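Task card 7
Instruction: Convert sequence to structure tokens.
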Amino acid sequence: MIKVAQLVGPSGCNDETVIKYSENFLNEVGKKLNKNVLIADIDEVKEEALPIYFVTTGGTELAFKEIYEKTKEPYVLLTTPAYNSLAAAMEILGFLQDKGIKGEILHGSIESIAKRLSILITVANARKKLSGLRLGNFGDCDALIGSSANFKEVEDVSGIKSILFDLDVFVEEYKKGGYPENEYTKDLMKHNFGDEEMKKALDVYGALKRLIEKHNLQGVSLKCFDLLELLDTTGCLALAILNAEGIPAACEGDQKSMISMAVLEAITGQSSFMSNPSSMDPEKGEIIFAHCTLPIDMADDYQLTTHFESGIGVAVAADIESQVVTIFKCNDDFSRYYAGKAYLIETMHRNDLCRTQMKLKLEDGTGYFSSGPIGNHHMIVKGDWKEYIDEFFRK
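Output:
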């Protein structure tokens, strides 16, 4: 449901034709959005992640001026092609711009209005979700020299609170053993990979789940390479399950990737594949991305194998059908980001790369990756989300 504040000028207040026209207009927009668009009081609308003003007729400028301070920028002015709606909205937007306040007029076909509204509402909901989010980082990412985050800057720009825990906190929890059974753990056990290795890998998952609950976390990163020596296992499987459950989970203690995964999940509502760009073909605009973990829910099919670099633990080798995907990464203060539309040509199973491998054809080529990448790891999500991400970072 979408609630909008209606603005009606004096000349249209008692005009049944205007009322009927406005209702039909909102119904048509709602059909395209697959949501009901309802007129509500400003005190209800101000609670929405994105307050929307429905400028129904001309002569609504003073009505807007009386209530606009109840909401915050950006001001979204929904207009129709009739009854001087657009003219009034332009006067209102001029008033806002004189005050240095951001605003936007939505005008055009029902389809274009609905598409723009979808983007704006999705981004507003994502920003609201991120504010107050708590991310736990178990172990510092000192080995990744370009991947640590300034936690204060992260909180200042997004409201995300990041907490660094010593890796010993995780290790002590792991020693307690045990994990919750669910659809993912049950399916993993059907692969008969080996009881001892599976138990160790799933105990990593159990430890993280308990720590998430204990510290009220909505996302985690794990310095998983240290587990090879400390616990003789890896975090690949644990992170694969957590991401599938909607809990962004980054490996190698990568703090910037953790933030990027949280942003992407808030925008798309989907899990993402944190991966290494392993090789590029600039002439073809292709990159092979690979890593030993992948959200279980992203795979059309998968097999279990060992971690690539160490040959121990349990890793995921996935197959995914060809489709459009989006590649994403941002830095900690949101001053830089990359969002690129790509096509998944194929998933591969080379023996000289991490276990899940994707060959992508990038719409904008490989230039960013060779001239100014935001570190190594990048996130891949199904679907074309570039417009949504661009809007999220629009100043």
